[in-house]
């Protein structure tokens, strides 16, 4: 078998992407107020806790954590006085009533909250997007499903394209998906039969995303979608598969890096539709990674997929 390297030059450390445009302190205005979109997401998270606490402890724990993170983000953005205190105008009302559209059905709560996040993505502050993207990914894992990115974006705006400011980002993301498909193919060749089957399903997931991205770029004049390269180089610190154990480790890293790449891309997105596409692609990638993480005996949370930057 011909041995090939599988990472392209685009496979830069994801942590660098996440740190770019890092969070900074806020200047206080004369009458600061909580961000309305984040406040709506916080209220939904608090309401979810009250509904799920008796029926879904894991979901309730996740939403309680999300509520606390959102409350902290709202206060950080709202500002503080020189003595460190938060102005009274930044206080958040604690809403515990669930949106009646769910009918109080616990099984509808998490999918409904994920959908609510998507509806608010165009309104939340750019620097808060990576946090919210990871919350959405966790909801997708807990619910076991997430919408197809292209379908969801078309429903938002049937005539939408990527938008000129996001074409380069979409091209880079497509190149990343090509590298992931290539790398997973190398890992699959070294894996045990059972794991190879799981990797095969992951490859199909990445092919689906790549095909959707090509279709999205096809709507933009002169976008010039990239084609797969002949080969890819190994990212710094990554191990080339050479036995079943290293093959599984490489596949897990590729899938988790892909999810983190999409979450970082969402944080850098300037257009609301492309931001939505990236968040949904990130959650799709997390769902794709779950079977491989299970094979490796790793919980998605332990892999850092839900860590809030």
Automatic annotation (TrEMBL):
<dbReference type="InterPro" id="IPR009078">
    <property type="entry name" value="Ferritin-like_SF"/>
</dbReference>
<dbReference type="InterPro" id="IPR029447">
    <property type="entry name" value="DUF4439"/>
</dbReference>
<dbReference type="Pfam" id="PF14530">
    <property type="entry name" value="DUF4439"/>
</dbReference>
<protein>
    <submittedName>
        <fullName>DUF4439 domain-containing protein</fullName>
    </submittedName>
</protein>
<feature type="signal peptide">
    <location>
        <begin position="1"/>
        <end position="25"/>
    </location>
</feature>
<dbReference type="InterPro" id="IPR012347">
    <property type="entry name" value="Ferritin-like"/>
</dbReference>
<feature type="domain" description="DUF4439">
    <location>
        <begin position="169"/>
        <end position="291"/>
    </location>
</feature>
<feature type="region of interest" description="Disordered">
    <location>
        <begin position="79"/>
        <end position="109"/>
    </location>
</feature>
<keyword id="KW-0732">Signal</keyword>
């Amino acid at each position: 078998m011909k041995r090939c390297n599988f990472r392209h030059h685009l496979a830069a450390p994801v942590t660098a992407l996440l740190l770019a445009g890092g969070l900074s302190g806020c200047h206080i205005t004369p009458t600061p107020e909580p961000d309305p979109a984040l406040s709506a997401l916080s209220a939904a998270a608090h309401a979810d806790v009250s509904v799920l606490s008796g029926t879904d402890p894991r979901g309730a724990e996740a939403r309680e954590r999300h509520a606390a993170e959102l409350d902290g983000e709202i206060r950080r953005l709202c500002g503080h006085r020189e003595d460190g205190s938060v102005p009274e105008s930044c206080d958040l009302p604690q809403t515990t009533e669930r949106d009646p559209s769910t009918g109080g059905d616990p099984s509808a709560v998490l999918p409904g909250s994920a959908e609510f996040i998507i509806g608010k993505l165009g309104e939340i502050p750019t620097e808060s997007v990576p946090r919210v993207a990871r919350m959405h990914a966790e909801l997708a894992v807990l619910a076991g499903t997430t919408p197809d990115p292209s379908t969801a974006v078309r429903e938002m705006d049937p005539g939408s394209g990527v938008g000129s400011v996001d074409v380069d980002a979409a091209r880079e993301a497509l190149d990343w998906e090509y590298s992931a498909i290539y790398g997973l193919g190398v890992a699959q060749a070294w894996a045990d039969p059972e794991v190879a089957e799981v990797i095969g399903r992951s490859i199909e997931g990445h092919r689906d995303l790549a095909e959707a991205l090509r279709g999205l770029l096809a709507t933009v004049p002169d976008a010039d979608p990239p084609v797969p390269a002949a080969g890819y180089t190994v990212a710094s610190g990554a191990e080339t598969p050479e036995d079943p154990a290293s093959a599984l480790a490489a596949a897990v890293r590729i899938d988790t890096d892909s999810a983190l790449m999409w979450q970082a891309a969402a944080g850098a997105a300037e257009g609301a539709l492309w931001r939505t596409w990236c968040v949904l692609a990130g959650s799709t990638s997390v769902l794709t990674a779950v079977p491989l993480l299970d094979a490796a005996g790793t919980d998605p949370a332990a892999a850092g997929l839900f860590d809030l930057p």
